[in-house]
Amino acid sequence: MNPTWERGNVRLYLGDCREVLPTLGRVDAVVTDPPFGIGFKYESHDDTPDGYGKWIWSCVEMAEAKCSPGSPVFIWQAMPNAPRFSQWFPREWRIFAAAKNWVQIRPTAMQYSFDPVLVWWTPGDAWFDGTASRDFHIANTNPSSRTGDNHVPDHPCPRPLEQVSHILTQWARPGSVALDFCMGSGTTGVAAVQTGRSFVGIEIDPTYFEIAVRRIDKAIDAGALFAPVPPAVREVGLFESATKEQP
């Protein structure tokens, strides 16, 4: 399948990821923020919880099938669904805490101060930068900080750019291909451009797709903010990282 929009090392597809994913070539990382099945109001997607687990896993499996050995898989999820994670995602995953320095106060005994991101690696040697490869990141989510690249007025829930950039910098090898099969406003694509990674994005909603195109096109025009020069490469076996102290 030909990309709907393509420039440099970026390929974007407007369509259903279940139809696009089988046509793709190899990728080296999956970093995606899909709908959560919690009834969120999107432009066109029906975020019903009915059948959500089956739908999201079918998408993840197709994306994972395109991954090179040792690829990281980062899947944003919603904390209210935590009791179902093991059922929906049958992998040996762990949680990356996408933490926030500002949270909306809700009528609940304990506020949600981080989004759980399920993380695992495909079989093979996993690459990591090692400079800040911890299992959390605190992003500036105060409404007053939503300017520049973080200001996306036409999308209801864009991710903090700095957080996605951190993930790519720490766990996606420089020059590798990152995939987001629920691209939304294109934050993963912008982060990939700015950190010297290639990007493949898929989005089913035409309005959000156009937002992503504008943001990524602007990022390409601005040029990479970080020179894509790889640091000293560290490789660890898939299960070695859990038992060995990182250098």
Characterization of the model:
It is a single chain. The protein has six helices and eleven strands. α5 runs parallel beside α6. It has helices at residues 17-20, 52-64, 85-88, 161-171, 187-194, 206-222; strands spanning 5-7, 10-14, 29-32, 72-76, 94-100, 114-121, 126-128, 136-139, 177-180, 198-203, 234-236. β3, α2 (52-64) and β4 form a beta-alpha-beta unit. The model is unreliable at 224-247 (pLDDT under 50).
Topology:
Elements: E1 5-7, E2 10-14, H1 17-20, E3 29-32, H2 52-64, E4 72-76, H3 85-88, E5 94-100, E6 114-121, E7 126-128, E8 136-139, H4 161-171, E9 177-180, H5 187-194, E10 198-203, H6 206-222, E11 234-236
Parallel strand pairs: 2-10, 3-4, 3-9, 5-8, 9-10
Antiparallel strand pairs: 1-2, 4-6, 5-6, 7-11
Q: What separation lies between the terminal Cα atoms?
A: 43 Å
CATH topology: Rossmann fold
Tell me, what's the shape? globular
Q: What string gives the helices and strands in order?
A: EEHEHEHEEEEHEHEHE
Tell me the strand order in the biggest sheet.
1-2-10-9-3-4-6-5-8
How many strand elements? 11
- Low-pLDDT stretches: 224-247
Provide the CATH top-level class.
Alpha Beta
Structure annotation, total helices: 6
Helix content: 10-25%
Radius of gyration: 17 Å
Overall structural domain count: 1
**Main pleated-sheet profile:** 9 strands, mixed
Provide the residue-averaged pLDDT.
85
Strand content: 15-25%
- What class, by secondary structure content? alpha/beta
CATH homology group: Vaccinia Virus protein VP39
CATH architecture: 3-Layer(aba) Sandwich
